[in-house]
Amino acid sequence: MNKLGFARKEKVQQFMAVTGASEKVAIQTMKTHDWHLEGALEAFYNEGNAKVVQEKNRWELLFNKYKDPKADMIMADGISNLCNDLQVEPQDIVMLVLSWHFQAETICEFSKQEFVGGVQSLEIDSLEKFKKKIPFLRSELKDEDTFREIYNFAFDWAKEKGQKSLALETAIGLWQLFFAEMQWPLVEHWCQFLEDRNMKVISRDVWLQLLEFAKTVDSTLSNYDAEGAWPCLLDEFVEYLIEKGHCAKKSDE
Amino acid sequence: MNQRTTIDLDQGWQFMQRGITKLKNILEGLPEPQFSSEDYMMLYTTIYNMCTQKPPHDYSQQLYDKYRESFEEYITATVLPSLREKHDEFMLRELVKRWSNHKVMVRWLSRFFHYLDRYFIARRSLPGLNEVGLTCFRDLVYQELNGKVRDAVISLIDQEREGEQIDRALLKNVLDIFVEIGMGQMDYYENDFEAAMLKDTAAYYSRKASNWILEDSCPDYMLKAEECLKREKDRVSHYLHSSSETKLLEKVQHELLSVYATQLLEKEHSGCHALLRDDKVEDLSRMYRLFSKIPRGLDPVASIFKQHVTAEGTALVKQAEDAASNKKAEKRDVVGLQEQFQVFVRKVIELHDKYLAYVNNCFQNHTLFHKALKEAFEVFCNKGVAGSSSAELLATFCDNILKKGGSEKLSDEAIEETLEKVVKLLAYISDKDLFAEFYRKKLARRLLFDKSANDEHERSILTKLKQQCGGQFTSKMEGMVTDLTLARENQASFEEYLSNNPAANPGIDLTVTVLTTGFWPSYKSFDLNLPAEMVRCVEVFKEFYQTKTKHRKLTWIYSLGTCNINGKFEPKTIELVVTTYQASALLLFNASDRLSYQEIMTQLNLSDDDVVRLLHSLSCAKYKILIKEPSTKMISPTDVFEFNSKFTDKMRRIKIPLPPVDEKKKVIEDVDKDRRYAIDASIVRIMKSRKVLGYQQLVMECVEQLGRMFKPDVKAIKKRIEDLITRDYLERDKDNPNLFKYLA
């Protein structure tokens, strides 16, 4: 598509918007009709391009299957049904990867746009295909950069809208998911520490920096720098670990 | 004119020889008449003639050679033998004599042969006659003897060092030979004499020092060292060349001081510590004089000084701490405790006076010692005593001096002087903001309750504080003092207003002090339900104030008010001086005889704390204006109170104090809050100009910016950075979490 000029690109996009056909189909049809949008559209429908329409309908069908009866979106019940059909637990981290792909704004919710756009870009048009995608989604967590993106995405996705921070309970749930995946040995201590401290919320800074901390500081804290710019909460966590005897105090070099 | 007859060499030289022999005889002291000018003319003319004859009879070259040979012959035949047979001092004397003779000989001979100098030598660029003469002595005499001479001189110097009398003039003359022989260059003096002399000096003093350091006390050692240095300096002025002074003294200083510096300064019973402990001012001055001369010599002295002052100061803190805990153990003796603190600050001031004098006198105002003093005071001045920070102690100290009937009875000059010193001490305190807050609280009490002894002192200390800490530090305090002056004027015009409007007069004398909110400490302004009489007063004043200014809101702070009311007790009427709170409570009993705690609280609309406090002052303290049921020492919410109509006292007027709430906690909280703002402001200021900055750098600059007011905790700064991130003033760099960016 990049080879096309701006005007043509726009036409292709218009074509796709109207018909819901794939890019490939759109370009081909436009080409055969000398880049006349109207002509191409007419031909497309006249030829009864049933397959494409069907495709589009299938995405919608998929959406409608889980749609909340009262709203034009998928809510908690719909998601739990979807999970059932996909044979994964709702708490499975793979659902988080999916939400990231769908660019979902809110936890436990998919708007129609998010869902339809999402399945389209993942090239899913049936439950079968959906099921087959699951191992791929899971494998994406192995990539370090994707993992970080999903981790960063999770903060805004999971926090109460209008709040600046993430509720501790939610944060702990997410950490347990993520760090089970990444295998950070201190995750249980960390969650315990936050509960002992009676923390209510987690700031974005702490959320983002914790991943750095988990990645760079080893579990014996031998390379932890007290003079560094870690958020106070992380400094205090280190003190907590030393106090509790989980880690030896770094000897002064 | 007849033609001049040619003089041949032998003939001419024979004549010259006679003249030379005569000269030698004179030098040897043999009886011989002086040269007459005729003799001299004849000798000169002979040379002149022999040099001006036509070749082959021009004998210039031969005469030049003979000139040199004459010296060589004389030196070999006479001078050297006479020197060789003498030794030591006698040899030196002979040498001096021979050198001086030699110079005479050069002078005369070069006059006889002068014509050579004018043409022959000049034309051929040969060494001049004078130089040839001196070179002969150098090559034949000096080269042979300089080693012997040097040893003899050094041995004489050593004898003098040991206290013997020596012939200084002789040494002076001998050493002049070393200089003169160089003919303008110092090489002979430096290489043949000075180097060996310095080496010997070093060895000599190294030997001495190794004994003295064991046998002598530090002051004795220093006395000796100073004396030695003085004598060596004398030595230079008497007979050594002046260029030797620095080198010589450096050697001596090195051997006597540098080598043993640590051992000397740390001598257990007489070292620097002991001298400071025993106030040996003179020895310390000497120590400064000596050690200021050696490179980095003062560093250890300053460091010991700092240790000493720190220890003394820490001892004072400990002493005050002990005294305070004793007082506390005895009973809750608040006054006694205050006295202890007062004594403590006094002692710290004395300590400062004492050691500042040391710095100025013994240590000649050297910056190193100023720094040591500062660092020492910073250590213990920031410790605080018995839970009170030194910022608070200083503020209280000032209060005691400035308030009426304070514990210090001082003359005006003494007050000024003391204030000056307190302000100086403040420089060592890192929590200046805490001092300012305590000071403001106390100043407010002095001003509002008319306790300030002297307006001039109040202003004078503010000037001093302003000088030291800057205008921002004192602006609020100055505002307070000014407010009070304005309030007095305001009161006068209020009284005038009342006399012009008799209808408005509430029938009660009312004084109102109008203050500017920002300048003063914040006070709680609860909505106390005032008695109707007082409500009327407030209304009248509001009306008056409206006539003067519009758009100004008056907030009444009843907690600071005082009232004089008449208590009509059965025995007699007594004037009671009470706070507005107390008065309001008492006036409730005009309407009812008995009131329960709960009734009083609801009618006054005050908090539990306040009600407990004021009821305690009226029923459980010295004057029992109210009778409490049950009669215990504590106020409880189930108590019932009744007016004590039988109450009486021998005085006609009594003051019933309401103990002030302990404000320490609030002050500290306030300061803490202000610090958060200050840190925020500082971080934003720095980041605004730097845009991107590393964490360490940011913390450093922040500490530096705020250092004038307080020493911010690194953790506190970090917390504020995080808060600013949350509030979207800053963000972390995506790739480097140690880097912060400013979000405009």
From TrEMBL, chain A:
PROSITE patterns: DCUN1. GO terms for biological process: protein neddylation. One of its GO terms (cellular component) is ubiquitin ligase complex. Gene3D superfamilies: Cullin, PONY binding domain (1.10.238.200), DNA helicase RuvA subunit, C-terminal domain (1.10.8.10), EF-hand (1.10.238.10). CDD domains: UBA_DCNL. It comes from the Eukaryota. InterPro entries: DCN-prot (IPR014764), DCN1-like_PONY (IPR042460), PONY_dom (IPR005176), UBA-like_sf (IPR009060). Keywords: Ubl conjugation pathway. It holds the Pfam family Cullin_binding. Residues 54-242 form the DCUN1 domain. GO terms for molecular function: cullin family protein binding; ubiquitin conjugating enzyme binding; ubiquitin-like protein binding. Neddylation of cullins play an essential role in the regulation of SCF-type complexes activity. PANTHER family: DEFECTIVE IN CULLIN NEDDYLATION PROTEIN (PTHR12281:SF21), RP42 RELATED (PTHR12281). This is Defective in cullin neddylation protein. It comes from Nicotiana sylvestris (Wood tobacco). The gene is LOC104239619.
Automatic annotation (TrEMBL), chain B:
One of its GO terms (cellular component) is cullin-RING ubiquitin ligase complex. Residues 389-619 form the Cullin family profile domain. The lineage of its organism: Eukaryota, Viridiplantae, Streptophyta, Embryophyta, Tracheophyta. GO terms for molecular function: ubiquitin protein ligase binding. Belongs to the cullin family. The gene is LOC107770609. Signal peptide: none annotated. It comes from the Eukaryota. This is Cullin-1. GO terms for biological process: jasmonic acid mediated signaling pathway; protein ubiquitination; ubiquitin-dependent protein catabolic process. It comes from Nicotiana tabacum (Common tobacco). Keywords: Isopeptide bond, Ubl conjugation, Ubl conjugation pathway. Pfam families: Cullin, Cullin_AB, Cullin_Nedd8.
